[in-house]
UniProtKB/TrEMBL annotation:
Source species: Panicum virgatum (Blackwell switchgrass)
InterPro entries in the record: Phytyl_CoA_dOase-like
Pfam families xrefs: PhyH (PF05721)
SUPFAM superfamilies named among the record's database cross-references: Clavaminate synthase-like (SSF51197)
Superkingdom as given in the UniProt entry: Eukaryota
Protein name, as recorded: Uncharacterized protein
Length: 129
């Protein structure tokens, strides 16, 4: 389930196995969300500090990218009991420009919920849904 305009907002995406036969969540909402995103870098002031920090924003230019731009940002949760498999894919098949003019590059950072500063922030977003 998604909200409309997910690319321009902070939206929640539930795990496929999160809902039972009658459409109700099988467990609490905070344990049923697969990921949240796509525009955290635009709308969440705490998250925004991370990709635009000197340490992170300097990575792609150091690899030769001329004008790197963030087009999506999200937290991905791998939850026990409902977590789905990460199927191999290429994100750049979802990103298009006319004429073709860009190369997709993803930066993935592993975070542990027990130490993730933004976890409290995640809980606040859950309460708003």
């Amino acid at each position: 389930m998604t909200t409309s305009n997910s690319a321009e907002n902070i939206s929640f995406f539930y795990e496929d196995k999160a809902f039972g036969d009658h459409g109700c969540l099988k467990q609490p909402k905070e344990l049923s969300i697969e990921w949240l995103g796509m525009a955290l870098h635009e709308h969440d002031p705490v998250f925004k500090k991370f990709p635009f920090s000197d340490n992170i924003s300097s990575i792609l230019p150091s690899l030769g990218y001329k004008r790197p731009a963030i087009v999506q940002s999200r937290y991905i949760f791998k939850l026990l009991g409902v977590g789905s498999e990460a199927i191999p894919h290429q994100d750049n098949t979802y990103l298009h420009t006319e004429p073709p003019s860009c190369t997709g590059c993803g930066l993935h950072f592993k975070m542990q919920l027990s130490t993730m500063v933004a976890y409290g922030q995640f809980q606040d977003h859950i309460k708003m849904v």
